[in-house]
Amino acid sequence: MGRSFNKVTIIGVGLIGGSLAKVLKANKLAKEIHGAGRSRETLELALKLGVIDHMGQGLVHAVQDAELVVLASPVGSFERIVQELGPHLKKGAILTDVGSVKGGLVAKIEGLLPPGVHYVPAHPIAGKEKSGVAEASEKLFQGAKCILTPTQKTDPVALDAVKSIWIAAGSQVIVMDPETHDHVFAAVSHLPHVAAYAMVCTVAELNAGADNYLNFSGGGFRDFTRIAASSPEMWRDICLMNSKNIVEMIDRYQYALNKIKKAIHREDGERIEKFFRAASDVRKGLK
Amino acid sequence: MGRSFNKVTIIGVGLIGGSLAKVLKANKLAKEIHGAGRSRETLELALKLGVIDHMGQGLVHAVQDAELVVLASPVGSFERIVQELGPHLKKGAILTDVGSVKGGLVAKIEGLLPPGVHYVPAHPIAGKEKSGVAEASEKLFQGAKCILTPTQKTDPVALDAVKSIWIAAGSQVIVMDPETHDHVFAAVSHLPHVAAYAMVCTVAELNAGADNYLNFSGGGFRDFTRIAASSPEMWRDICLMNSKNIVEMIDRYQYALNKIKKAIHREDGERIEKFFRAASDVRKGLK
């Protein structure tokens, strides 16, 4: 098993932060877990549920003497939080996160940390429909991928310690550089969210008499647009932090839409079927 | 209850056709049900499961003396089938269908029928992940919408008879003209399918070393693209039969994508959030 930490502080004790706290406890990787975050209500619930052992009075107090600090708040808050807590981290402490954007953000965070504090960027590919600490489970990450994106500055011992945590969580750990991570997730996660938001906006504008077209949508449309119910603030931040890659992916997507649009406009059945068959074969290959 | 039919013929005894057969039986709306279709295997299974009472030897034989004929094969086959069976339909017979394209197709079918045969176009908004007659259930249509698209030529008595069947199935019947139907379903069903196919093609082209980007997709991407596993032939036919509306919807969708792309490119957080919030609020309102 991996290294055990005396004091762990989790900033943002929601579904992901809470589940990670449960993993640390279930695997005896943490002696005591402190929770911090904006919502006192959430922290009180996490305490009541036994997910954390202590509630911090402010960020600075919460991270004092912590050997491991986990950023599990919305990714748009990381820079501000690290600016505030950076100078108060213990020498030798490990800072990690669960954010879905890496790239430039990793370099920014590295630049904000005092020497001797080790940052290990991580991104577990997990989640479920419901959010919040009440839904937290030590099983959330089982069988899921977790991407670690170390840089040349990353301490190898700290990297191994964080890797051990995710292996204990039952995840498949994959190491990738931060730039590749952001390009990959612009395609497989950020683009589909933008596309779902755009789809809902497109259809919501249309009305047949008194009925909005959305009233006629079936299961397919609902599946397709489920992710459009996600937090607008979180996705705004992701779009701002990964703008270049997301714009590239929207361009690529529009190129594909143009190809199929032209074939439909020309009523070229052969080309339409070829395009659909290629996609359908690929999609069937995904579990 | 509605009119009871002595002989009903269902052409294409899959999930939808089989479920409708079960509805007719469960509500004693049919004395005997004949099945017809391309696949002998499917018909034999439907017979074994008691979904149909007889297997037709060819279309013409199957529809002889039928009082109700249901087209439940892929919508691309309707015109050819009606060309073949039209002259053999009994005077006073009702022809209906479960196809997802109406518009011009309705006029074509009306033009192929002899006088005294009544066509009532229908489109039940139902389906599930699995297809095939083994999945058929008289409960499939409960609580779902069923759109009827009569024209000026539609016989009001025949319309009522078909309406009664769908009410017996537990559906909410909505009447709409064929052109409006095709515009609405281009938006809520056909566009999302095209968009999902385009999304899979876009991402499948990208690789990180030996790994295809798709290997990093999570639940959101899978939900979003589930409908891209649908039958390429069926969706080719729908695109060909509703091309004008689908091209219009792709244009509208690209316009929305452009708006959000520009906001992301400019890193205009306020505009991005406004756009996402509008979509998120609408989406949360859908069940």
Describe this structure in words.
The structure is a homodimer. Chain A has about 290 residues and is α/β, with parallel strands linked by helices. Chain A folds into two domains: about 5-175, 3-Layer(aba) Sandwich (Rossmann fold); about 180-285, 6-phosphogluconate dehydrogenase C-terminal like domain (6-phosphogluconate dehydrogenase C-terminal fold, Orthogonal Bundle). Chain A is built from eleven helices and eleven strands. In chain A, strands 3-2-1-4-5-6 form a six-stranded parallel beta sheet. Chain A has a three-stranded mixed beta sheet with strand order 7-8-9, with helices on one face. Chain A has a two-stranded antiparallel ribbon with strand order 10-11. In chain A, helix 4 packs parallel to helix 5. Chain A is elongated and about 65 Å long. Chain A starts with a strand and ends with a helix. The model of chain A has no long low-confidence stretch (mean pLDDT about 95). Chains A and B meet through helix 7, helix 8, helix 9, helix 10 and helix 11 of A and helix 7, helix 8, helix 9, helix 10 and helix 11 of B.
